[in-house]
Hints:
Blueprint: H1 3-12, H2 34-42, E1 52-56, H3 63-69, E2 74-79, H4 82-94, E3 101-104, E4 117-123, H5 132-140, E5 143-153, H6 160-172, H7 177-186, H8 192-199, H9 206-213, H10 223-231, E6 236-240, H11 249-261, E7 269-274, E8 287-291, H12 296-300, H13 322-329, E9 335-336, H14 342-353, E10 357-361
Parallel strand pairs: 1-2, 1-4, 2-3, 4-5
Antiparallel strand pairs: 5-7, 6-7, 8-9, 8-10
Amino acid sequence: MSFDEVAGHYERHPYPHFPLLASIPRHDTYAMNLTALWARFNGELPAERQGRILLAGCGAFSPYPMSLANPGAKVIGVDLARNNLRRARLHCLLHGFLKACLWQGNFLDPAIAPGPFHFIEAFGVLHHLDDPAAGICALEERLAPGGILRVMVYGHYARQEAESIRRSMRLLGVKDVETLKQLIRRALPDSRLGHFIDCSREARTDSGLADLFLHPNVHTYRIDEFLEMISRSGLTPLLFTHRDALADVDQEIRRLRELDRRRETRTNIVCYLGRDCKGEAPVSSRSYVLLNPALKAAVSSLRPGAPVPINRLGHENPPLDGKARRFLRRFISPIHELSLSLADQELARRYLKELFLVRFNGCRDTEVPG
């Protein structure tokens, strides 16, 4: 499969195709914030103004939310398709993010967006490469020590029905969305195609239909196949964040193996991987707790209602009601963890798990990114 075929697919069908004026509240980007992620996985705060973030295969949208999550960092997006980049650039401009750098090219080329980067995202990208393992190695080489890579790849059983339909479309010679939509209109409601379309959010847009059923190159993964792929790099799984994922990596791997054995896995695989990460800071005389900077506006707001940051770590989040916001506001500046009451330490641990708060080794005068 040539890169020209994949590039041509996205030139015809820029993806994802969100309305240009669609906005995102910053609190929904909390799991993309470099300060929070670096503290979570390295136990220290980064210098956000020096932070570098790469979106490998950035598509038509992700530079906007990543810039929103990290206004002080340098965000670079790379994509094969000019139309993806054109639409991504429009999203950024319309929402006031003028600093994102968007480059057309193949991230497998080491001359394209050379590192080091502190955070790389390859969400829904590796499974479209001829050699996904080579892709993950190319990204690992760009990571700084302590760097974090977030990936999403298709789960084998989660994608099984869509792959069956995609193969059928290829056998039928269906190559364009209009022909595909004609087949869908003729499908009986209780047919496999009709049922899948009724249940799929992706199938509501032309670009979603094209991504589901017309993409020229797709790989799917069982958990052991995913682990085999990343074993060829120097990366270590840090945290799985697909729906219902367990916080402990080893426990989640065992859970997914059992689901794969029973062919009952219903999620794609979403995972943070790390290069020589130092690990979470322990509770100590040097540990401080800080609010995730992406939540600052949400917890400071006096508007009625309770924002609910969307599920980014595998579970639904609680509403940020008045009580939660009052508690979290205390951590806009770092607080020495051992100065908290035992009850507040217990509550802080809950928010640490949800990435609303982060723990780091340092001091109260540490510069906090905005």
